[in-house]
Each structure stands twice: as structure tokens, then as C-alpha cells.
Amino acid sequence: MSLYQAESSPKIERIRAMKAEGRKIATLTAYDYPVGRLLDEGGIDIILVGDSLGMVVLGYPDTTFVTMEDMVRHTAAVRRGVTNALVVADLPKGSYGSPDAAVANSRRLMEAGAEAVKLEGARIEEIRAVVGAGMPMMAHLGMLPQSVREEGGYRLKGKTEEQAAELVAQARAVEEAGAFAVVLELVRTEVATRISETVGIPTIGIGSGVGCDGQVLVIHDLIGLFPWFRPKFAVPEADVAKEIRGAVEAFKKRTQEN
Hints:
The protein is an alpha/beta fold. Helix content is 44%, strand content 14%.
């Protein structure tokens, strides 16, 4: 039980209840109005306005280039299309270096339309500060994309018992600090399952196996909209890139023939 509680909402209580009832939580990213609206109409539980937009929307090599201005703009766009899903927005790298900064920038995202925010790492004081200021917080443990340059790549976490124990301790700590859920990215399957069984808050996995309380994917990976790179764990359900190329070729041909 956390000593820190943000103002709750029916949407967040619904997410909490899904873990208690054993119902899996489906989460996808969105970065603009039409995709946000389509995901909402499709019945998705959580829409994450992720800083992954740096790569799949803005063309950067990783997420570290994303700014608060980027996140505010894209959060507002997504929120305009969403009614039912819970909209969570990422705090970008450099925006939560202190509790005060975390609170100020979380407030900017909430004012743009986010219903909760997310930060990376076991930043306990920052989580406590944001939650204490009345803003719901989702944590993010395991592989941390904003630290990819320091770590030299995207690596599986929890390979040793020492690493596994540290991840379990971190998950307990972010729960105690007030996080209402936690993303587990590239965590060894057995460890992610252990964490999910240990903490009372929902775990949302990405590349961490099916033992989590839910799953999240970048929408571009799900629908095949970013064909130049796809994580090994992502299973596409469509090939939108192929459809776009085909439509472009058909338009060009029709234009040239008329």
C-alpha cells in the first residue's frame, strides 16, 4: 500500500480492477488525432503518447532527442480523439531531473490532455512528488530507452538473480511511491512474471513475456507502418507500409495516364 495517492479517476480504477479480475490490459501508442481516435474506437484500454515518437514519427535515431514541446503537442493531438481509453504521456529525457521539474513538466502534460504521466527508472522522489501533487504516475523499469546511449544498446534485463532481485525491489519501491502501474521493458520472462505476482499494481510488458498483467506495443510495429526496423518481439497484424506504397504507385500511374 502506498503512502502517496494521486487523485484517482474512473479510468485508473478500471485499470486497477483489471489486474484484480485477471483481465489483460491492452496498451498501444498513438501520436496524433486520427490514430488516437481509431485506437479508442477499437476499444484499447490505455493509449500511451510515447517518446518513441522521436523515432517512428520524427525520424530521430532514439528517444533522447524528444523535447517537452514535442510531447505537449502530440499529447494534445491524441487527447482530442480519445473518450474512453486512459491517455498516458511520457516525460521525455531531461524533463524530470528533480522532483520540482517532474511536477512542473507533468503538469504541462496534464494540461495538454494527459490523464496520467510516465517516467523511466526507479526515480522514487520524483514519483512521490508528482503523485503527491495529485497527478497519476505510471513507472517504467527494465530496459530504459532514454538511457540507451549510456548503456550502449537495448539489452535484456534480469539475467542474473542479483539483477532480478533488484528489479523486484524497484517495482515494490515505485508501487510504494504511488505509481498506479509499471511498464516492464525487455525484462526476462520469468522475472517479469515474478514482479507481476509480487506487486499489487498492474504490470504492462513489452518484450517481457506473457506473465505481465498487460502488453504494450508501438502502433507502428503492430500495423507495419515503420518497415525499416521492427523489434523481434513485435508481431505485426497488418502491413500498412505496403498499402501506402501501393496506393502511391496507383495514384502516380493514374495521374500519368490521364
